[in-house]
Write a structure and sequence with these properties.
heterodimer; A: Sulfite Reductase Hemoprotein, domain 2; Sulfite Reductase Hemoprotein, domain 1; 5-stranded antiparallel beta sheet; 21 strands; B: alpha/beta; TIM Barrel; 8-stranded mixed beta sheet; two-stranded antiparallel ribbon; 10 strands; 21% strand; globular; binds iron/sulfur cluster
Chain lengths: 556, 191
């Protein structure tokens, strides 16, 4: 993975000095809260319901064991012993004190981490495929490009005060595991017919109040033009994006109001002048970054396959876990392990300091020191020998981290909601807890099969409810918390925004409503092979509506 | 009635002067004299050096002689279309780009276009809500001078000697790439 050089270190240190100074100026009252707000935001500091919240960047979701240990340490010393992994592959600490933040940032800098641009109207942390560099279906590793983008976007002089936040995601495999079409810019790394690497550019995706699937802007932009083309897009957005209404300020609205074709012309004009500028990536630039992301040396061992088969036969719970949580690796004798942070009745994405330490140790011993954070709020060990799976499973089992539920209904994605967030209308965590409890039986979950359930506490959609096969959105009506249900959303290759079923449900009704949806699906699917989303796509929303609202008596 | 209007006008005049007095012009080497006066027209201004709104300037550019033109600058609102100006860039001595609020970043892009794309060589000036925390961004986007109202920013700029960052990950004004090994641009002044 990427390692800081002297310059990167000095850069982050200077940033901490600058921000510490800004915090001091705020504490002594030299600057107003209004002036301080954008400064603290672009350093990841929010003011939440009960306390400040610090969001730390995990660039494209890649972590080392040492870094995870540091996060565990920070949670233990400066917080209440846990951290929350977010749908943006970041981690949030919910209870730090403002005066401690410079100290925390120094701790982070020791392991080459920071909180730069994890918020504010600037280019945010670049996200990527959590299986990058390991997945069997990968064309090319997207992380070097994510790193190039991360560096280029850091303290960008022109793009630090955009109309609104700006999110970029990049993938390089057959499967889009980073939901790129829900980002302001989605990049798909590909090879053209003459074998050259380049990117398909999508723009204008996003969730929130006006969810939109990104549109295809350009089929293939050469890798050397990555930064020039991106600059052209963001410059046009910076100049013409709306600033009169923050709900209409994202690039998706500009595209909607201006038209893709007109915008494309403007972008192409900018690009024409930028193409030959210093932004051009030379092969040596790309090679220099690539060396940091060389695949680890993995030894072959075909015996492991046989042993694994035996172990799975002897221990069915282990077998279930392998089925659900283990994914094919590029190397046939290795696997990718997803560690579920979705225990029954737990808080999705939360990990205690002890759990983080355990996982860091596992990564050190069994995964070449590497870890990933998925936007599904789980952790990943990317390079595990098949022969080590059982040992890892046993350790996870002992720490309460062996939930075999990746991609199942209890693998709920949820934002912090009303328990922490100032913007929330309703609780998300308690609903997630009830759902994972209601559907805790492994047999039941297997019967339901692959499904994505997402919960957001308000229309900002941090829990990505729009793209959940089942989405739950907290709304407020006449002072009470209500939950709106959406169906048919989907991320990835067949990206789609879900449709609202109808009137919302109370906190007491919502889990029953989900169960009604599930039972309807089970009774209407053609076979157990037909997943929830495929059934939904075949039959549409009507029968679900009938089941939900024709049976309101049963629900209440 | 008329008298009232007149006194109101003079109050506004006073306030404007006050504002002008408190506003300082800063650039490489520290604070400097601001020769220019902002006005809507060339008449009744007690200086030969005037900054006119872009639309106004475009109306008169063909009509005034070279000597006056040389002393006449341009003020552009954030996001204002600067394309009509392009044929004249060689004769413009100063362009002031507005930051109506520090959080409105449009003028950064206009600055980049003027300096980088269209190779404008005259003085580029940031005016409006200019605060210390955005100074680095402004300089890197090609601004030469800053009109500063904010007291604390004035104090901080007095002590300002160089960037606190060792360099940057992007090209920018007065920055050069120092090595082919990494994509880092450092200040030409410090090296
Ligand atoms: S979706 Fe709303 S409630 Fe949830 S974290 Fe985002 S802003 Fe807060």
């Amino acid at each position: 993975m990427y390692r800081y050089d002297e310059f990167d270190k000095a850069f982050v240190t200077a940033r901490i000095a600058e921000f510490s100074d800004q915090i001091n100026r705020r504490l002594v009252g030299e600057i107003t809260e209004e002036e301080f707000m954008p400064l603290r935001l672009r350093n990841g500091v929010y003011l939440q319901l009960h306390a400040y919240m610090l969001r730390v960047a995990i660039p494209y979701g890649t972590l080392s064991s040492q870094q995870l240990r540091k996060l565990a340490y920070i949670a233990r010393c400066y917080d209440r012993g846990y951290g929350h992994f977010t749908t943006r592959q970041n981690i949030q600490f919910n209870w730090p004190r403002l005066v401690d933040i410079p100290e925390i940032l120094k701790e982070l800098a020791e392991v080459e981490m920071h909180a730069i641009q994890t918020s504010g109207n600037c280019i945010r942390n670049i996200t990527s495929d959590h299986f990058a560099g390991a997945a069997a279906d990968e064309f090319a590793d997207p992380r070097p490009y994510a790193e190039i983008l991360r560096q280029w976007s850091s303290l960008h002089p022109e793009f630090s005060y955009l109309p609104r936040k700006f999110k970029i995601a990049v993938v390089g495999a057959q499967t889009d595991r980073a939901a790129i079409q829900l980002h302001d810019i989605g990049l798909w790394l590909k090879r053209n017919s003459s074998g050259k690497l380049g990117f398909t550019f999508y723009i204008g995706g996003g969730q929130g109040r006006t969810p939109m699937v990104a549109k295809l802007l350009h089929d293939f932009v050469l890798e050397e033009d990555l930064l020039s083309y991106t600059t052209a897009i963001i410059r046009i957005y910076n100049l013409y994006g709306r600033r009169d209404n923050k709900y209409k300020a994202r690039i998706k609205i500009l595209i909607h109001e201006t038209g893709l074709q007109k915008l494309r012309e403007e972008i192409e004009k900018e690009f024409a002048v930028l193409k030959a500028s210093e932004l051009k990536l030379h092969q040596s630039d790309i090679d220099a970054i690539n060396t940091y992301f060389r695949a680890p040396d993995l030894t072959d061992c075909s015996e492991w396959h046989y042993n694994l088969k035996q172990l799975r036969l002897n221990d069915s719970a282990f077998g279930d876990w392998v089925n659900q949580n283990v994914t094919a690796h590029k190397h046939p004798d290795y696997a990718i392990v997803t560690i579920s942070l979705k225990s029954t009745g737990g808080v999705p994405g939360d990990a205690t300091s002890d759990q983080m330490d355990t996982i860091a140790n596992l990564a050190e011993q069994y995964s070449k020191n590497e870890l990933r954070v998925s936007y599904h709020q789980n952790l990943v060990l990317p390079h595990v020998a098949l022969g080590d799976l059982k040992t890892i499973y046993d350790t996870l089992l002992a720490t309460g981290l062996a939930s075999a539920n990746i991609g199942l209904i209890s693998d709920v994605i949820a934002c912090p909601g009303l328990d922490y967030c100032t913007l929330a209308n309703a609780r998300s965590i308690s609903v997630a807890q009830q759902i994972s409890t209601r559907f805790s039986s492994y047999e039941r979950q297997m019967e339901i099969g692959a499904i994505k359930l997402n919960i957001s506490g308000c229309i900002n959609a941090c829990g990505h409810h729009h793209i959940g096969n089942i989405g739950i959105l907290g709304v407020e009506k006449k002072g009470t918390e209500l939950y709106q249900l959406t169906l048919g959303g989907s991320a990835g290759n067949n990206c789609a925004i879900g449709e609202v079923t109808g009137r919302g449900f109370t906190a007491d009704e919502i889990v029953d409503a989900v169960e009604v949806v599930i039972n309807t699906y089970l009774s209407l699917r053609q076979s157990s092979e037909e997943s929830f989303i495929n059934t939904y796509r075949r039959i549409g929303i009507e029968l679900f509506r009938q089941a939900l609202y024709g049976t309101t008596r049963k629900i209440s | 009635m008329a008298r009232q209007e007149k006194s109101l006008k003079s109050v506004m005049q006073m306030e404007k002067m006050q504002l002008n007095k408190n506003t300082k012009l800063w650039g490489a080497g520290g604070f400097r004299e601001n020769r220019y006066v902002r006005s809507n027209c060339l008449e009744n201004v007690d200086s030969n050096w005037v900054i006119l709104p872009l639309t106004r300037w475009l109306q008169i550019v063909e009509k005034i002689d070279g000597e006056i033109l040389r002393k006449t600058g341009i003020f552009a609102e954030a996001g204002e279309d600067i394309k009509p100006l392009l044929p004249f860039l060689d004769v413009v001595s100063v362009i002031a780009l507005n930051f109506p609020k520090f959080s409105d970043g449009r003028s950064y892009s206009t600055a980049m276009q003027l300096k980088q794309t269209y190779c404008y060589r005259g003085e580029l000036r940031a005016v409006g809500d200019v605060l210390i925390d955005q100074v680095s961004n402004m300089l890197r986007c090609g601004f030469d001078t800053l009109e500063v109202k904010h007291q604390l920013t004035q104090i901080r700029l007095k002590e300002y000697s160089k960037e606190i960052f060792p360099g940057f990950y992007q090209p920018g004004a007065r920055l050069i790439r120092t090595s082919s090994q990494n994509r880092i641009w450092r200040s030409t002044a410090v090296r």
